[in-house]
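Sample A.
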Amino acid sequence: MEQRHLGSLKVSAVGLGCNNFGMRINAEETKNVVDAAIESGINFFDTADIYGGTKSEVFLGEALGSKAPRDCGDQVRHAH
């Protein structure tokens, strides 16, 4: 997957919109989508606290679980 710089972050050129997580798809389906995205090289997820009736970020966090690098927390906070 091609990578690009977004500020100080290096992200995949393709991002995954997460607005359907929690609305159209449930937690298990979200995990399947996130797993497929990661396998394809996607590391850029667009989410917000209002997506999915406020469930999108929770479902994404659960789907990522231990897959998210432990050193990315500071970068994620600064990407907001």
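Sample B, a different protein:
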Amino acid sequence: MKRDLSFSIKHRISKKADFERLYKEGKRVNFGCYLLIFLPSSLPRLGFSIPVRFGGAVFRNRRKRRIRNLFIQNLSDLPEYDMIFCLIKKPQNETIELEELKGIFEWLKSKKFQKDS
């Protein structure tokens, strides 16, 4: 069976109203460089908030690409939540940041997340 490894429109948070609802009502968890904001949903959906002040387009797009790739890889195991990844601190280096992102997705798949939310 072939797995769908694309980031389809149904898994994106793109409407301003959805972002505003998450910012207003969502639960927040700080993971060092990233703040995760989430709310229950009908399927896993992903959004980003990576401010210009942290770097140019290449820097911001690389972060989004990494998060998207991890989201796609873990999609079948993720809970049904809308989630926004907000960059709140510039990462020290790429390796530490990647490990932090992997840790966030492991936490999302864990039973600890189910209890905390």
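Observation for Sample B: The longest strand covers residues 34-40.
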